[in-house]
Amino acid sequence: MTMIDRRAMLAASSAALLLTRPAFGQSRAAFSWSALVQRAERLSRAAFAETPPHPGAAAVDYDALHAARFREDRTLWGNLPGDTGIRFFPLSANAAQPVSIALLEGGRERPFAYDPTLFEAPAGNAVARLGPDAGFAGFRIMNAARDADWLSFLGASYFRAAGAQKQFGLSARAVAINTSLGKEEFPRFTHFWLERTGEHGVRVYALLDGASVTGAFRFDNSLSPQGVTQEVTAALFPRRAIRELGLMPMTSMFWYDQAHRDKATDWRPEIHDSDMLAFAGSDGTVHARPLVNPSAPRVDVFAEPSARGFGLLQRDRDFDHYQDDGVFYDRRPSLWATPTQPLGAGEVRLYTFPTDSEYTDNVAAYWTPSAAPAPGTRIDAAYRLVWDSARSPAASSLAIVDNVWRGRGEQLGADKLVVDFAGLPGTEKPEIWVDLKGATLEKKAGYPVLGKAGLFRVVLDLRRQGNASSDIRLQLRSGNRAFSEYVHYPLGA
């Protein structure tokens, strides 16, 4: 699988400070959501034509991006109060295909033309040499102080938002195509329409185009002290049969944590943007799947018809566990997706592949419908994305996985797995329910950790069958009553 280099995306996102006195086009055509959906449907019946990269974009490398700056006094809506100032990204080697931008006012659109004077750059800088008709790579939405952004769209159909601690981390995208099947496609947003919706909100319409699918998207984006919320509506039109369609996809990075000390070649104790996949089943069960850095590409499938939600979480928020005073992994947002219309039959999928650095996103999570989408059909989706610091968006009354530890078991050749659950009431005495695949249980124990209120530790000694990975399911229960999340863990992955 090929994923966009995360550091290149981060570099572009922080490099161009971008628009209040823009140069608008003259046309003011009527615009509507229904017209955009019809446009996407018509596009799906035409042959796919890739937008060529700008010939000068390859010269805009990391250094050129950081040397160029969007002129602060040209921030779109920058003279108005609130958190809706817009700045734009120039083209670069990692985002070389221009996108079309238009503004919406009173139900009518005005094209927003590229202007090289929007950027200031040293003489000879590659951004300055792009030319007067280069076009933009994407855009970002600024806070009220105009000193940081809280949402950006840049590259393919990727977008990302900041959490309550004003820190970026994982990304989302419009769709995932054949992510786990060896050759992934990256449809891209080709057109954007931007509409101001009050002091703290922006509505973004987008047209998606790709070899296998087209689509119309509407994002209602708002900022609050708790983070960013996006209400998403989408209509998708397959151009051809799609073997694996991922809806509500999110992409992150997991290198190592305290359970993966053998992979810790960096001096920092832990490095990851997310450490947990969580999902809520239609039957009320809340599942937790701690992330691992596998030795080979891995797909985990969780059948969940009409799942109530899922997300990639950054559950560990202790600075001491990371010691990173540069990019602050302890501040990275969690992302939770909640369908706002029934999903039907399908499954949550987690795809991971090995990494030995923090610069590659090696984790993808998404929901896949059971029926493979066929050309000529329409797929409607509606969901909410919440970017915040919540450790457990779905398990409010349950003990949650706080930490996982791995080591050598007491007997030769055995493995030890230690799972700490936080939030268990001190009066409860749970039973430890364990189910194993590819391993046998040699010993189990569970007890409250002295001096740590609500912390309950489960210790398992396991013997795997050969060198293959074993799948462990674990939960704290009393009869049929669940006291904790339902844990899935691949030992030896």
Write the layout of secondary structure elements.
Elements: H1 6-15, E1 29-30, H2 33-44, H3 62-67, E2 69-70, E3 85-90, E4 100-105, E5 108-111, E6 119-120, E7 136-142, E8 149-154, E9 158-161, E10 171-173, E11 175-177, E12 188-196, E13 201-209, E14 213-224, E15 227-238, E16 245-252, E17 254-256, E18 271-272, E19 276-280, E20 286-290, E21 298-303, E22 309-313, E23 334-339, E24 346-352, E25 363-369, E26 379-388, E27 400-408, E28 415-422, E29 431-437, E30 439-448, E31 456-464, E32 470-478, E33 481-482, E34 486-491
Parallel strand pairs: 4-12, 20-34
Antiparallel strand pairs: 1-5, 2-6, 3-7, 4-5, 7-8, 8-9, 9-10, 10-16, 11-16, 12-13, 13-14, 14-15, 15-26, 16-25, 17-18, 19-20, 19-22, 21-24, 22-23, 23-26, 24-25, 27-28, 28-31, 29-32, 30-31, 32-33, 32-34
Notes on the protein architecture:
The chain is mainly beta and 493 residues long. It has a 16-stranded mixed sheet that branches. Strands 3, 7, 8, 9, 10, 11, 16, 21, 24 and 25 form a 10-stranded antiparallel sheet that branches. The two termini are 18 Å apart. The chain is globular and about 70 Å long. Strand 14 and strand 15 (227-238) form a beta hairpin. Mean pLDDT is 91; it is low at 6-25. It has 3 helices and 34 strands. The longest helix is centred in the N-terminal third of the chain and has 12 residues, at 33-44.
